[in-house]
Amino acid sequence: FEWPLFFVTKFIKKELDNVKWTCTIPHLTSPHLTSPHRNHNFILSTVLILIASVIIGTVLMFVAYSLPVEPMRKNVAKSIDMMMKEGGRNSWAALTLGNPYSIADGFTDSLMLNIATFKNNEYSSKIQNAMSNPFLSYENAGNNSNPPYTERTSTTENLYNSLKNKNEDKMFVNTYSRYWHGYLIILKPLLIFFSVSSLRILNFVTQFLIISLIILKLAEVTNSKYSLAFSISLLTIDPISTAVCFQYSTVFYICLLSILIILFKNNSLLTSKKYFDFFMIVGICTSFFDFLTYPFASLGFPTIFFLLINKDIGLKNKIYKMLKFALAWGIGYIGMWFGKWIVASIVTNENVILNGLNSVIFRINGVRADYGGAITWEWAFSHFKDIKGFQTIIFMFFVSVFVTFFSLFVSLRKHNISLKEILPLVLVSLYPFIWYAIVQNHTIIHYFFTHKLLSVTVFAVLCIIIKCTGDKNFNAQQIR
Fold it and tell me: Do the Cβ atoms of 255 and 298 come closer than 8 Å?
């Protein structure tokens, strides 16, 4: 999805540069007054890129919904018994749900597969289905089933009944139109050829190869210490869960591919001044593919890699670029999301804009997961203290904070580390907490995957420690 947008962006920029902007007011035609021209070009190109992105996204979704569904249903049916046993919140490392680190979101995966395998009905066209994203729901899912399923497995039961054509008299069509569900342009074609079990293996192999390439390239352009820091930060995301859970994979792939582009194309992006467009497209892709998991990671990780590679840039310039990147990402993310609401409202004759706005208000409101009052520090602590390993997490957190500040104190005195080296990384390390402060409801309800965003903080803090202790490369004797 990124490459068509790069070509569109390049074309738009070229055409705008060829336009001769004229002004009839004499005193404004001075060649020194070029900022209005540049601002006009900037706003126009940004709007055109967003419009092009919405059009491309709509076309890709229409193509995905034009694919034959029966082969997909047969392949998903091969793994449905496995998914029923796993349940909605299965854990690969624990028998209970007390450990959020190892939880795979089977609940949402089942919903994604239900949407992907929905049979086009005679009441809706392909373009309407592409924008409304219908799926089948079972009216008694999670209540009166045999065996007794809980609410956590209701989406898996919906998928089971849909694939097995059971309880058809109790099934009804539901829609999920406020998200793009862009993952379908990849998931649907793959399901034609692979089962869910096979896709998990393919997912693991693909992610492993991309991560390996990033580690090798990062060690080449910076040094091996940062590769080690990146590897450790990935443990916060839990690569096993991202391999077995489609829900967690979308943002993870966007992060990895964005990092690869920065590692291989940094010089060309700098010289052509395309970094703003790049981060805008990353935000657009995040909005298109992600099902609202830990999206801010696709801003945090690429920003850290930019800072590591371009360490000679001055402090003010670094902070200025960080603000530009955040603005570009936000414009792309919000603009693309709002674009779906507009197109879906036009195509489906439903007020998707109002639906989306209500959802956003609910997610950013400080309403508790049990819908019974405001989120407070006391409630959050009492909510998390029962999680297995919570005491260990708290202990490790304070140890990490102590080690970080101690390293900063010692290194600033001993190695005379410049502020421009560490301050930008400190700011990036705060990105997850900015997201948590804004999207409070979503963060608390989905704590078992929103914690993955802290991988940005872990990576930034480790990079700070490396800079404070000397970031010279390892040599063969040190490794041995």
Answer: yes
Q: How far apart are CA 135 and CA 39, in angstroms?
A: 44
Residues 6 or more apart whose CB falls under 8 angstroms from that of 195 comprise 75, 76, 78, 79
Q: Indicate if the pLDDT at residue 382 is higher than 70.
A: no
Helix (H) or strand (E) holding 300: helix 297-309
SS3 call for 474: coil
In sequence order, the 6+-apart residues with CB closer than 8 A to the CB of 169 are: none
Q: Distance between CA atoms of 157 and 175, rounded to whole angstroms? A: 17
- Out of 19-33, 232-246, 289-303, pick the least confident: 19-33
Tell me the C-alpha distance between 294 and 250, whole Å: 10
Residue (of 11, 8, 40) closest to 23 by Cα position: 40
Q: What angle, rounded to 10 degrees, do the helices at 297-309 and 431-438 form?
A: 160
In Å, how far are 160, 212, 213, 318 from 231, measured between CA atoms?
38, 9, 12, 25
- Give the β-pairing of 134-138 and 103-104: unpaired
Percent of the chain with pLDDT over 90: 48
Tell me the CA distances in angstroms from 461 to 48, 97, 433, one per residue in order: 38, 29, 14
Give the separation between CA 217 and CA 176, rounded to whole angstroms. Answer: 40
Contact 60, 31 (CB under 8 A): no
Closest CA to 388 of 91, 36, 140: 91
- Residue ranges of alpha helices (H) inside 194-296 are 196-221, 224-237, 239-244, 246-271, 275-289
Reduced to 3 states (helix: H, G, I; strand: E, B; else coil), residue 124 is coil
Q: Cis link prior to 147 (omega < 30° from 0)?
A: yes
Cβ atoms of 157 and 149 closer than 8 Å: yes
pLDDT, mean of residues 38-64 = 90
Which two structure tokens, joined as six digits, stand for 123? 């009441």
Both structure tokens of 221: 């352009």
Compute the distance between CA of residue 68 and CA of residue 407 in angstroms, rounded to an integer. 58
Digit-coded pLDDT (tens) for 68-108: 999 999 999 999 999 888 877 777 765 544 566 677 888 89
Residue pair 163/77 in contact by the 8 Å Cβ criterion: yes
